[in-house]
Amino acid sequence: MLLRGIDMSYTIYGTDWCNTCRVVKRHLTSLDVPFEFVTLPPGEKGWAVVEQLTGSRGLPAIIKDGTALAFDAFKEEIDALGRTPRPLTQDELDELDE
C-alpha cells in the first residue's frame, strides 16, 4: 500500500509475551497502517527465525518488502507519516490481545 509516498508493507514477527510487540501492533492499528503480525514459535526455533531475518535476537523483527528494518528506522518512517493516533475500539483491543 502506498501512503503519502511511503510504501507500507510491514510484517512484524514477535511473541505474545513481548511488550514492545504489543505496543507496535497497537500503535500501527491506531494509525491505520496495515501490517501482518506473525507469531514466532517458542524457544530456539523462534530465535532462529529472528536471527535469520535480522541477524540478531531482538523483538519485534520488522520486515518491509523482504528487508529487515532497524527499530529506529521503522519508528522514523512511521513518525514521518505525521498521523495522530486514534483511540482503539474495544473490538480492536480484543483482537490485538489474542
Task: Explain briefly what this protein structure is.
With 98 residues, the chain is an alpha+beta fold.
Describe the protein's architecture and organization.
By secondary structure, the chain is an alpha+beta fold. The protein has a single domain, classed as Glutaredoxin (3-Layer(aba) Sandwich), CATH 3.40.30.10. It has helices spanning 19-30, 44-54, 71-79, 90-96, and strands spanning 2-3, 6-7, 10-14, 35-39, 61-64, 67-69. The chain has a four-stranded mixed sheet with strand order 4-3-5-6. The radius of gyration is 13 Å and the shape is globular.
Distance between the termini: 25 Å
CATH level-four homologous superfamily name: Glutaredoxin
- Strand line-up across the major sheet: 4-3-5-6
Mass-distribution shape: globular
Tell me which CATH architecture applies here: 3-Layer(aba) Sandwich
Beta-strand percentage range: 15-25%
Largest sheet: 4 strands, mixed
Provide the CATH top-level class.
Alpha Beta
Question: With helices defined by DSSP (H or I, 4 residues minimum), what is the helix count?
Answer: 4
Order of helices and strands: EEEHEHEEHH
| Low-confidence sequence ranges | 1-6
Radius of gyration: 13 Å
Fraction of residues in H or I helices: 25-40%
